[in-house]
Amino acid sequence: MKTRVAIIGGGPSGLLLSQLLHLRGIDSIVLERQTKEHVLGRIRAGVLEQGLVKLLEQAGCADRLHAEGYVHDGTLISYDNSMFRIDFTEHTGTPVIVYGQTEVTRDLYAARDAAGGHIEFQVEDVVIHGADTDAPHVTYTSQGQQHRIDCDFIAGCDGFHGVSRQSIPLTVRREYEKIYPFGWLGILSQTPPVAEELIYANSPRGFALCSMRNENLSRYYIQCALSDKPEDWSDEDFWQELKRRIPADQAEKLVTGPSIEKSIAPLRSFVTEPMRWGRLFLCGDAAHIVPPTGAKGLNTAASDVHYLYQGLCDYYENDSTAGIDSYSEKALARIWKAERFSWWFSSLMHRYPDQSEFDLKMQLAELEFLRTNKSAQQAMAENYVGLPY
Ligand code: RFL
Ligand code: PHB
Asked: If you placed Cys at 299, which of 49, 138, 184, 224 could pair as Cys (CB 3.0 to 4.6 Å)?
């Protein structure tokens, strides 16, 4: 087989890139390790920046998002049994949209299917060959048969555990990582959200987040020990613990119900440099991970796709390598700022096992500063709604 861009990974990054390229007449083949049902079964991100919304519009995949997504003009932050609000629209003129990654992915699959896009599911043993030559190719196995795709470029959109990043030699690749000493236990429940906006809660018992998908679908998280397993937590225990971590007036009106999903995610900050090796380009979680506190994971994946898409269009339409040559530098400049924000917001909101009394006072002072200082709120709002591409 032959294609211009071989895309490894059929998550949001790979699908969005494939759809955008298609609309510019640039063909691609997407290789996905799982089934479509498996990919659509993952409950992940919920908050979309304007930049991602614009890309989805460009991709012709934003109709349902505009009809069913929720515009959030601000967010609530609680600590010490009190709560304050940061108004995104007042500070930046821009809201965020609450619309699940699952739905974004569903919309992207629908668009690829409607356009007759080529996606191979349940592929195994994907290997990248000759990424540092002018004639790269990818091999993989499907239903016991080996296949080969010759291509101009390879987009590594295969997430943190994929093969793309590992294909870059260690003499070239440099990795930066921070592992946080806790995880997030998340549940999805068919109950109305406790508040109209998200609540990020700092409590002596640990962090909690009240989020949502729609009027009758809530997503809640609590900070938990890394050794915890989802089955250690009954629904009853989860709700009780959540109630203890949010302001009393919110806990009182919290509607509880059976969980329809329960999982634990570890928290990690991770960046690999460079994001390009020859004709291989890394996008999204394949190149970087943020702790979910700032809702930046899917959104940073989107900015990578934007830069790579622009670079590839420049290459095919204008015969220029300027865009692909500056891809890694441009993408990383934005990524490191999102890494900083997610790390800062995580540090502000969680309880750390080794926190001293002094550290706790610093956290409190920082929260007080954010509550009362317009400039601090402005900086928070600018980062939360997403820095410009
Ligand atoms: P994905 O989504 O991991 O997709 C990669 C795809 O590649 C496939 N794959 C392979 N395919 C072929 N061959 C191989 N060898 C392969 N290895 C892997 C995988 O099956 C998969 O389908 O990466 P992508 O596309 O870069 O997208 C990144 C986002 O999924 C991720 O950043 C976000 O979900 C992170 N995230 C959030 N981001 C936000 O912007 N806002 C949020 O509110 C938010 N909340 C979250 C989150 C992530 C979470 N978890 C569980 C990690 C909340 C949680 C709980
Ligand atoms: C979510 O709704 O899953 C969500 C929202 C905000 C975050 C992280 C996750 O910061």
From this structure: 49
Question: Is the whole-model pTM more than 0.85?
Answer: yes
For residues 42 and 112, membership in a common domain is answered with yes
Alpha-carbon distance 228 to 342, whole Å?
23
Residues 228 and 279 in one domain: no
Q: Based on the domain organization, do 290 and 362 belong to the same domain?
A: no
The reply to whether 16 and 154 lie within a common domain is yes
Q: What are phi and psi of 124, to 5 degrees?
A: -130, 165
The ligand whose atoms approach the alpha carbon of 293 most closely is 2
Helix, strand, coil percentages (3-state) for the chain, rounded to 5, are: 40, 30, 30
Q: Which of 282, 309, 285, 312 is nearest to 297 (CA)?
A: 285
Residue partners of 39: CB distance under 8 A and separation at least 6:
10, 11, 32, 105
Check if the beta carbon of residue 158 is closer than 8 Å to that of residue 284.
no
200: annotated active-site residue: yes
With H, G, I as helix, E, B as strand and everything else as coil, classify residue 208. strand
Decide: 292 in ligand 2 pocket, CB within 6 A. yes
Mean pLDDT by 10 residues, the chain (389 residues): 98 98 98 97 91 98 97 97 95 97 97 98 98 98 97 98 98 98 97 98 98 96 98 98 97 97 97 98 98 97 98 98 98 98 98 97 98 98 97
Residue 303 belongs to what domain range? 5-70+98-177+268-345
Q: How close is the Cα of 159 to the center of ligand 1, in Å?
A: 6
Residues 209 and 77 sit within 8 Å (Cβ to Cβ): no
CA dist., res. 285 & res. 276, Å (int):
14
350 is catalytic: no
